[in-house]
Amino acid sequence: MLRITVHDNLKSLTFRLEGTLAGPWVSEVEECRRRALAGRRRPSVRFDLAGVTFIDAAGEAYLAAMHRQGAALIAADCLTRAIVAEITKAPTPDRGRPAGPKPPAAGVGKDSGTGGMSVRPSQESEASSGSA
């Protein structure tokens, strides 16, 4: 399920998304965007992803297309920021960690089963749970 809230002011149009940006909800966002932009000059478009809990491959492709058209993507949590960084090819902020090579994130990555971003257990957790 996805909730779409449109915040409209003179300079920008912000689509606040909450829930799952996947499957049929992607086309619903596009339809909402088209209706909101109908008959208007091209305002600045922003997608607020702070409330998004899951993005599948179609959702990621849609956000990438919107970014190429000039839309700003606003992300709050780690996974959503990682997706936005991948789309925009921008580095994710290091939040004050020392510079240097970064170890691979054991618990975060693409979920091959759904094509979206998800959290999975680290290899250490999987190995220790199987040896009991």
Task: Please give a structural write-up.
By secondary structure, the protein is of the alpha/beta class. The chain has one domain (2-93, 105-130): Transcription Regulator spoIIAA (2-Layer Sandwich), CATH 3.30.750. The chain has four helices and six strands, in the order E-E-H-E-H-E-H-E-E-H. The protein has helices at 24-37, 57-68, 78-88, 123-130, and strands at 2-8, 12-21, 44-55, 72-74, 108-111, 116-119. Strands 1-2-3-4 form a four-stranded mixed beta sheet, covered by helices on one side. Helix 2 crosses helix 3. The N and C termini lie far apart (39 Å).
Keywords:
single chain; about 130 residues; alpha/beta; Transcription Regulator spoIIAA; two-stranded antiparallel sheet; 4 helices; globular; disordered C terminus
CATH superfamily grouping: STAS domain
Inertia-based shape: globular
Distance separating the two termini: 39 Å
- What fold name stands as the CATH topology? Transcription Regulator spoIIAA
**Helix proportion of residues, in percent?**
25-40%
Uncertain parts? 105-112, 118-132
Number of strands: 6
Instruction: Please tell me how large the radius of gyration is.
Output: 17 Å
Helix/strand structural class: alpha/beta
**Largest sheet, described in full?**
4 strands, mixed
Mean pLDDT: 78
State the CATH class. Alpha Beta
The number of domains is 1
- CATH architectural name: 2-Layer Sandwich
Give the spatial strand order of the biggest sheet. 1-2-3-4
Strand content: 25-35%
How many helices does DSSP assign?
A: 4
